[in-house]
Amino acid sequence: MRIGAPRETKNHEYRAGLTVESVAALVADGNEVWVETGIGAGIGESDAEYREAGARIAGNPAELFDAAEMIVKVKEPNRDERRLLRPRHTLFGYLHLASDPEQANDLLASGTTCIAFETVTDEQGALPLLTPMSEIAGRMAVQAATHFLQKRNGGMGLLLSGATGVEAGRVAVIGGGVVGVNAARIALGLGARVGILEKFPARREALRKMLGGDIACVDSTPENIERLVSEADLVVGALLVPGGKVKHLIPESLVKKMKPGAVLADVCIDQGGCAATSRPTSHDDPVFIKHDVVHYCVANIPGAVPVTSSKALNRATLPHIREIAGKGVRRALHENIHLRRGLNICRGHITHEAVAEGLGLDFITSSQAVLSL
Is 96 a catalytic residue? Predict the structure, then answer.
């Protein structure tokens, strides 16, 4: 198969959809691999190293899209890239379509087969292509929040760990999934007092065992959300609805009750955010203040640590890329239900129920869609 990986263009997005190591493996399988010039600049891998691994170097996105059958990206394609997509293409990357109707409409119109990293599953029902980035985002959200809690950066001027004779700060984590667990671990490591809001009793018990007795793990009722959020110095939004939009569990009225100078790190902003006041921000302009609360809503947090992120992501995605390339997209989707759950759009149809619900559109099943390939 002819596989192409363009250079990422999102603000301060330095990750690479294919590393040199991944290219070498795909070329060894007999594939023709194209990468856009400069794809590895952010991870310290040069065009010369990609050539040595067997890649062909495209001078621009148009050349790469023209050559490739499968497009491997990290973040969603921008407007110009979406104009280059054709029905013969298979797009494989993070898409988060439910909260992005403009992108969804463009991809529907293109006729492209779109497989989203974030809804591919495994035998345990987990999301193996989302997990490594969720781990990093959860850890980095707390790291970033400590910076913005400083007075000169807009925060209240609080050190999460406290000091001798001074109480540690309070952290409320909304959601006990991968992002939430990793955020809680970093916050606990800093010495903060941490509470996690999680609706499933079995998961709450697992969290207590996983994180130890120093954590408060409570049901995510409206009463508990209001109590923990209003008391917190840092709130981490860590909800997940695979493929869909998350609910605004923090209404604007509750944001108004938060401490002046508190930080809200809304890690689920790709899915619409857990706070009614959240909107996507960038690494160039990462925060805004509303109702005296510092909102950190960067939509590509792991892009700031691209060496770690690219290695972790490629390790997870490469087996699926090899399967699609080796079998062809139709057979791969037909034979692998977990890959098929990643199918979000196919030949002008939405093929994932949560995506359709988020966009208010109809869908067909992924099994039906595969028959049309």
Answer: yes
